[in-house]
């Protein structure tokens, strides 16, 4: 009876709080809040038929898709139930004025095991398809990822008819060893070797071939209605394998790439490189004589040797007359010639007349007429020995993450944590391990040439911004290469491919104050040091260009002594005029979260 009375009292209290907060919410004049609770833990799964430990969000692998709208304030309470520290990175979310929420070791201290921590950020002036993932300790290789969908506000038109429904697909190469084993392999100076397969939404391949695919594999099935058009968002969340994505007998009408509406073009298949996201409009216009294959297969490899490294799901019409059968739709036949793939990448262009997150056309920002103020030629190389360790480099420097995050060091005016001396061109002489970062100029316009001297495909990502992809070609970039730049409708995105033995040029307007990561998305090369940060500082500090350090900021490294023990009052983030409302709502969500544990 005492337990029943206590439960009734608890529910009454929570219902009262909910009523109060709903009333406050109706009268709150700012942008809406969206709340998420993420419990990050290990679960056992067998996506390729081998039992292994994967990282789940709320018991799900992959994690839930975060569905938000332009300008929403996003609050994510993270409970770290892993046996190691954790950070979640919101890849492609620009974190405007809020580098503190980026979830990378250069900006945030990690969330200790068994702790809660709350992220709070605004998806300011953004739309599009992105994903989140754990950014420490090679954890992404074990999962912990999920989609992020940022919808247009109702008053902003989209450049196509409203689709019937929205579908998120996560594709990526996969190993049956977990991230700790893969991490040990890299630290021992070895390559990871060929992946064991490709997953589609955390599941293995449909048994399209009895010899190649063992029995008992759980595969992804997407059910659709005939005659309807769906928006299908696809992200490559894998480790290092470029994947060709295709749906049997269906055209992929490309509509958006990482927050930019594209010129709409049909593709029978599209190469999606590690870290990249696209959304397609797919019309269900077939006769449904059978189900259809959804395929994600490895690119630029010997297909006969990599047959098992193929993800296969099923597109099932509600009036389907039978199971999918027969061979998979063919991938591009160009193992040794990457020209087709590069031309495909060049064909992805910005829709300059469409509205993005704002009512004005995307093309109203005329990036091609802005004078460049800073130029960096950033060159990678294959892994090499640096100070007795197998490492990767950019411009001859293998990045070492400091024990005290860069932004935190600036806040407390610590010296010697990093160097503002990242070279504008590759260094001569032996490579070195350092915490060397780029000194960006606030409101400057930077040109970055990414030169890939490795033998494999790389993709490069920049936090805090969408950059313009203005050119790419094989060979070595030179000043004359600027004559080939697209200065009108180059796509604005957050992650771009750089082909082996080739270069890609990007332009970026440095209007977002903070410390922003520039890295390869190839997880093995990133883990071994192929990254740096760009530090952008407003010499006249103001909350208009950067929000204050959040009240719940974690401390580590030289500032570790400032860290207080875990407490619910420190598991919330408050800032500016939002603080009182945000705090009460977060406390409510946290209270409910605790009650249901």
UniProtKB/TrEMBL annotation:
Q: How does it sit in the membrane?
A: Lipid-anchor; GPI-anchor
Q: Which cofactor does this sequence's record say it needs?
A: Cu cation
Per the UniProt entry, the signal peptide is 1-29
Question: Which molecular function GO terms apply here?
Answer: copper ion binding; oxidoreductase activity
Q: Which SUPFAM superfamilies match?
A: Cupredoxins
Principal location class:
membrane
Cross-referenced InterPro entries = Cu-oxidase-like_N, Cu-oxidase_2nd, Cu-oxidase_C, Cu-oxidase_fam, Cupredoxin
Alphabetical list of Gene3D superfamilies matching this protein: Cupredoxins - blue copper proteins
Annotated ranges, domain Plastocyanin-like: 40-154, 166-319, 404-539
> What is its subcellular localisation?
Cell membrane
Similarity comment text for this entry: Belongs to the multicopper oxidase family.
Protein's recorded name: Monocopper oxidase-like protein SKU5
In its UniProt entry, the species of origin is given as Solanum verrucosum
Record lineage: Eukaryota, Viridiplantae, Streptophyta, Embryophyta, Tracheophyta
